[in-house]
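Page 37, top half.
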Amino acid sequence: MSSTTPARHLRNLLLLGICVLLLLAAWLAMRPTWQHDAPRNLPWAVADYRQAHFSHQTLPNGQIQLEIDHLPLIGITPEMLAWWYRVLPISTVEINGTTYPLYHIFHLTEHGQLWVVEPATDGSPGMGEGSLVARREWFGPHNSEGAGRVISISAAGLTVHPEVAGVQMGEIRHIFNATPGGSQYRVESLIGVDWPVIGPILNYLLRHTVFTEHMLREWERHQVEEVSMLNYYLPQLYAQRGDGYNFHLDTQQPLP
């Protein structure tokens, strides 16, 4: 009886892997395209991403490991960062008479939509623990559409599990640490699955169809640019917390 249990487990895992491969292949074949939102003409310079530290590598099982140490965030606390992500999918901001989704000022040229598919476990609005959040964005020429399950969110950081058809496809950890001047923000990402037999095949497919070398470099650039943008406005937005989810920004306010 006990000898059949591992075999049954392996068979079930193989069947799951085959189903995921078929779903991924179908998704790749029918990937939707969408019209990119117009760039936001706002007076904030994009940081030079090359000043940050980032790298990626392929692990022995074929998963992709990606790490980023972002540029310093000045006058921004870890509590502000946690609050930012909580309200990001459900908020708007008015700037010079124009109202934008908050997601649109996170990156001025490469963000489309961000929305909550499933609410947080405790029913709280926005990006809370247990929520499933979907996004549409692009990294240079690479469109990116997906969803992630929020595992934890606090002043210590944010952990998200990317999902495809309800199956976890890695882990993205945002780590927030307080510094004398603000915060240090680090990202540790693991893309792919750690499954026996079928896992390396799925990871190979991911690396050669979605997470190509060029796409990874563009994704790293994009992440550094968006996080550094917070220096321009997050303290001003955070000062308005508690007044709903419609904010106002004064672009003439000096940086901290």
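Page 37, bottom half:
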Amino acid sequence: MSHPKVWSSLNDDYIRFAALFKKKTGIDLVLYKEDQMRSRLTGLMKKSRFDALVDFYYALAKNETLLTDTLEHLTCNESEFYRNAQRWSVLEQRVLPEILHGNERIKCWSAACSTGEEPYSLAIMLAAFRQSHEIQVLATDINQRAIQIARAGIYRAESMREVPKLYLDNYFELREHRYAISEEIKRCVRFKSHNLLADPFEGGFHLIVCRHLLNYLKDKTTEALLGKFSRALKKGGFLFIGEVEQILQPLRYDLEPVDAFFYRKR
């Protein structure tokens, strides 16, 4: 497949593609690590039988299905309930008691929530405190298809490996080899589409969970995002990040480490 518009070299093909893609979708790929985005694009191009980014872009411009598939492929990350269960135990046993103490209204945010496993994990942990506290769980992601899956709340067994049996029995129903989250928990989470790198943030959060996104971002993008997260947290609020991520010089963002992958707003 070819197109009369030819880009000048392989060195700038990605930059040109990213600029046109931003105009088309509002998503700025330049803010992400190029090698990771290139790898995802290459896999999708091979699957769709394209050799050049220029040809792939002009196909996206004409084919909404291909564009939707590309958006999903570039922005959706795998998720599961209670991923890295030891860290969720720290959240349950150390962080949440500190948040709940002295706060009748609790506001939490699962940022880049993918298909909803993490915000539902959080909502289940907080379910026992709903009679004594007013609890809000906001869950956002840039990928609208992922948000649709999250709202449906139906998951494969592979996502459930770390779910404690008590939670599995109380908050899930097995339907044709898949697990459906209870309506009680679904009502606890407010899902919406949101671009962390472009859209304004709400504020006043006691807890922000953002796991497995920072490692995809360029350093400058990460720094800007951490500053925005810090400003969105209440004093004493917590940021919970992924197990392969770390925050260098957390004091720059008025954050202090309290446990592995947990930071408190000073």
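Margin note: Residues 10-25 form the longest helix (16 residues).
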